[in-house]
Design goal:
The complex is a heterodimer of chains A (113) and B (114). Chain A has no helices and 10 strands. With 113 residues, chain A is mainly β. In chain A, strands 1, 3, 4, 8, 9 and 10 form a 6-stranded mixed sheet that branches. A 4-stranded antiparallel sheet of chain A has the order 2-7-6-5, with no helix packed on it. In chain B, 0% of the residues lie in helices and 52% in strands. Chain B is built from no helices and 11 strands. Classes of the chains: A mainly beta (113), B mainly beta (114). At the A-B interface, strand 4 and strand 9 of A face strand 4, strand 5, strand 9 and strand 10 of B.
Chain lengths: 113, 114
């Protein structure tokens, strides 16, 4: 299964862009990159996903490098409510043709007032 | 829609007791997953199911059993609870779309084994 590597923690000033990096050097050609976040001990919340093109939605932007070995989640204007643990996940395909989500340890983002 | 609902939300067990955690989804999703999350750690996949009547092992399946008798329900069983199984358990479900689909998570079950 493709693994992801993320920094353990990051700080960001409120109102500034938060850029969260992720390495996934063993990703396969048909595996998607997903980002989720977890606030306190709630269930993870979906943010965005992509295959090889950059993606943007109302919450964030996802930049995937051309070789697909790394990506960056961008929160354009971080607020205090964005303080959470952010998980970069590669949706791994199984040998039976199905897939599963394997989580790493995530990045703890703290937005500072 | 309720989304993904986990029952119970909290439980304390004595070592050796058994229990079943229930996950129910009302989105007609094919895939369902059980994860555990220990303090300060990410989520680890216990078991998952790609359809009614089918289950598969994840990263940490030992000590757990699962069943998917109905498409909307995914049960996680602990036959003989151990203190090492103290954790927060999350259930998730997704469509089976091979291209892309997000996972929806329940709010978790906090289990303590004493």
């Amino acid at each position: 299964d493709a693994k992801t590597t993320q920094p353990t923690s990051m700080d960001c000033a409120e109102g500034r862009a938060a850029n969260l990096p992720c390495n996934h050097s063993t990703i396969s050609g048909n595996e998607y990159v997903y980002w989720y976040r977890q606030i306190h001990s709630q269930g993870p919340q979906y943010i965005i996903h992509g295959l090889k093109n950059n993606e943007t939605n109302e919450m964030a932007s996802l930049i995937i490098t051309e070789d697909r070995k790394s990506s960056t989640l961008i929160l354009p204007h971080a607020t205090l409510r964005d303080t959470a643990v952010y998980y970069c996940i590669v949706r791994a395909h199984t040998t039976s043709g199905t897939y599963k989500y394997i989580f790493g340890t995530g990045t703890r983002l703290k937005v500072l007032a | 829609n309720a989304g993904v609902t986990q029952t119970p939300k909290f439980r304390v067990l004595k070592t050796g007791q058994s229990m079943t955690l229930l996950c129910a989804q009302d989105m007609n999703h094919e895939y369902m997953y059980w994860y555990r999350q220990d303090p300060g750690m990410g989520l680890r996949l216990i078991h998952y199911s790609v359809g009614e009547g089918t289950t598969a092992k994840g990263e940490v399946p030992d000590g757990y059993n699962v069943s998917r008798l109905k498409k909307q329900n995914f049960l996680l069983g602990l036959e003989s609870a151990a203190p090492s199984q103290t954790s927060v358990y999350f259930c998730a479900s997704t469509r089976s779309d091979i291209r892309s689909t997000e996972a929806f998570f329940g709010q978790g079950t906090r289990l303590t084994v004493v």
